[in-house]
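cron nightly-structures :: item 1 of 1
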Amino acid sequence: MEYRGTWKEIWRQKGEMEGTVEDLYIYDGWEKSKADIRVTADKIIRELDIQPEDRVLEVGCGAGALAQYMECKYIGMDYSMPLVEKHIQFFGNSVIHAEADDIPFKDKYFDKCFCWGVFLYFESLEYARKAVQEIQRVTKQGILIGELPEVSHDEKHLLYQKKMFEGWAIQDAWTPQYKGKRFIVVKKGSLA
C-alpha cells in the first residue's frame, strides 16, 4: 500500500490500515529499517537503565512496537489517534493522543523518556526544539532520542546536526544501515 500526504496524514492512514499485532513493523514504520524491534527495545532499556518502578514516557509510541517490551510504569503518546487506538487494542497500555511540542504532564512527572525514529517526521526544526524542551521539562533522570537523520533516503525527512544537541552524549546509529547517517542522543542523571 502506498501512503500519501503529510507525515501526519501518512501515520493516520497507517493506523487505519486493517491488520493485527503481527503488522507492527508496518504500523510503526519499521518495514524498511531491517532493525530488530526487540534488540532496539533492549538497548533503550539498558541505556536508560529502565527499572520496573520507573515511570517512563515514550513520545511517538505508535501502535506499541517498542512498548511491548517495556516492563515499567509505561505511558505512551502519539499524534496519530488511529495508532493510539491500535496500541491500546494490542497491548492495553496507557496511551494518550498528544503532540510532542505540548506534552500534557506536569514538570518532572517521568523518571525517563525515550523517543525512537520520530524526529525525522516532525514538521520543522522549531517544532523539534519545542519537543526537546517539553521532553526535558517532564523528565527527571534520563532521556534517549534515537534515529536522528543527518542525511536520508527520503527528501521529506527532517534532518539534524549533532551540534544542535550540545551537552548531550551522542552515539552513532545502532542499526547498521544507518551508521554514519543517523545518530542517537542521550542525557542521564538529574535533569533539574
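cron nightly-structures :: done
The chain is about 25% helix and 25% strand.
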